[in-house]
Sequence to fold (447 residues):
Amino acid sequence: MRNRLVLACALATVAGTASLATAAGLKVNEQGAKAMAMGNAFTAQADDPSALFYNPAGIAFLKGGQFSLGTVNIFVPSTEFSGTTAISGDSPSAGSAPVFEKAKQDLFIAPNLYATYSFESMPLSVGLAINAIYPLAKSWDDSSAFRNQIMNIAVKPINFQPTVAYRFDSLNLAVAGGLDVTRALVTMQTMPYSAGPAGTNTAYELGLMGLDGTATDVGWNAGLKWQALPSLSFGAAYRSEIDLKIKGNGNFLATTPAGFSIIGMTTGATSPYSRTRAASTVSTTITLPDALSLGVAWKPTNKLTLEFDAERTGWSSFKTLEFKFDSPQFSNFNNKPKALDWKDVWCYKAGGQYALTENIDLRAGYMYDKNPIPDSTLGPLLPDADRHSFSIGQGFHNDRYSVDIAYMWTHFVNRTVNNQNMTDLLGENGTFKSDVHLFGGSVTVKF
Fold:
């Protein structure tokens, strides 16, 4: 019982502070419509204001002032699951009844804003990016067989990135550095259960648990771009880890005698229909992963540009998670570290652009993303899997402005796991299926 409730809180906050989402884990790589149309292969090109995200050194090669406003709309059809969960079926046969569950459809709207300025009198550029790198929303029906693990969660992050870049004209080389100031807001609801005596295959409802929290912390980023030849460029970008120190409130509504017991109330003082609420402040620390991107772009002709990128994300920063509740009523939930055991992964991106006319470009791309979550800790909050993403797009531009649009389809490889644990009422035995559709657009003005 104690482990079950702690896990519910822990998983929810992981989602919020890994602060997802079409890159493996929770990260959203689609932060610019032009790059998105080329499978996010943009580290070496980095030739519009979204370079602030993909490779900040690229802004050193932009002219004058530029302002870009865009959005990526991520439509997530219902994630499907078929199999058993720890509470599927009635006691004393809990965990044995096959179920088919569908998550509620989700829509993320992740805006991005970029502003850059290059000085005429010196090879210096400055920029500011405002975007959402780690958004997440997931909702299962209140009566689903996952309700003890997650009912709904919403994560609303925002990242502020002030950046400075310097260009060495004699070398056709630029370097950049900046800060990442991340603010995250998290809300979650779950219905924790308690396992019965060993070997009985029973599960008892405890009540309803709600959690909300916030965090604001700072990291840094750096980039390098080298225009080795007019037709060949190289890029590298790094984003540091961020230790998010989350503080918030937990609210537990006890609805059963077992729920009363876990917060230290005697069941003899309650009627079958009694309810009581307990509240506590809560804190934890999550380390957002670092990321290293390497890219090469080649123009075999004046009209065609090709790029290949490789990106490593250090998800191994998600090792364990432990919460500290301040209220004595929540003492049963303390000192319960939860293993996560995520792994570092590589993502590979390939894309291209063809200049159909002087003002119109056609784009396409592909991205393969390994998932970082091992079978042992995979669950309904983020049923991740290896991903194949295919993208297309178009750009229109002249000397004063540009308009870019993009579409991406992400297919999750079917993920089958067998990690159901009746002792702690964790996990599931079955298969998750998911797909995601993304639509991006941006308008850039040059002045």
